[in-house]
Amino acid sequence: MSISQYNGSAMIAMTGKGCVGIAADRRLGIRNMTKACDFKKVFQVNDKILVGFSGLATDLQTLEQRLRMRCNMYKLREEREISIEAFGNLVASMQYEKRFGYYFVEPVIAGLKADNSPYLMSSDIIGAQCFKDDFVVAGDTAETLFGMCESVYRPDLGPEELFEVLSQCLLSGVDRDCLAGWGATVYIMTPEGVRETHLKGRMD
Ligand SMILES: *[C@@H]1O[C@H](CO)[C@@H](O)[C@H](O)[C@H]1NC(C)=O
Ligand SMILES: *[C@@H]1O[C@H](CO)[C@@H](O)[C@H](O)[C@H]1NC(C)=O
């Protein structure tokens, strides 16, 4: 069993026209055994940054707490919010710092730049960054999600369409993987704010 299958997860981030979104499943398992269906994997850093972590649940929470500390320190020192570009590099460098005993986590970052254009980044477990302008996927279900996204994604979707596309891709993707799914959460970020929606999924 690979590390991404220990606790199971599925995650997609997508860009739209002046908006971005992240969809993640909510299952927490110990290998084949499901423990919870309300596990939080996506976090809002500030008005412009969403970050999702897929991988080992304990490392995910450690990395999230350390990142929150680093962002708070940045805000105190610089007296401004961290930009999405700086945040992307911060995450990658924190992962690379631990490259000989790494966090078993694949982050997915989505947000808006200063001019409200979308920003998307994902990285592997040692922080090799990958920048895309359409969508990124992560987690145990990545292959299936790639297939769904490639056939359904269209550029310049509005927030409502983006929500629909993200939801359908995630729900159909996790149906082919028993280690992820069991409900999902979709976050849509626009310059006006972030909307969080919980979706019901198949419970098997
Ligand atoms: C994640 O999976 C590991 C390995 O199967 C397990 O030991 C651990 O308890 C799981 N994490 C949680 C928070 O249940
Ligand atoms: C999980 O279930 C699958 C399918 O039944 C099985 O092939 C696999 O060995 C199981 N894994 C573990 C760690 O029990």
From TrEMBL:
UniProt-listed SUPFAM superfamilies: N-terminal nucleophile aminohydrolases (Ntn hydrolases)
PROSITE patterns: PROTEASOME_BETA_2
GO annotation, cellular component aspect: cytoplasm; nucleus; proteasome core complex, beta-subunit complex
Superkingdom of origin organism: Eukaryota
Principal location listed in the UniProt entry: nucleus
Alphabetical UniProt keywords: Cytoplasm, Nucleus, Proteasome
Keyword GTP-binding belongs to the record: no
Biological processes, Gene Ontology terms: proteasome-mediated ubiquitin-dependent protein catabolic process
Pfam family, one: Proteasome
Protein localization: Nucleus
Protein name: Proteasome subunit beta
InterPro entries listed in its UniProt record: Ntn_hydrolases_N, Proteasome_beta_3, Proteasome_sua/b, Proteasome_suB-type
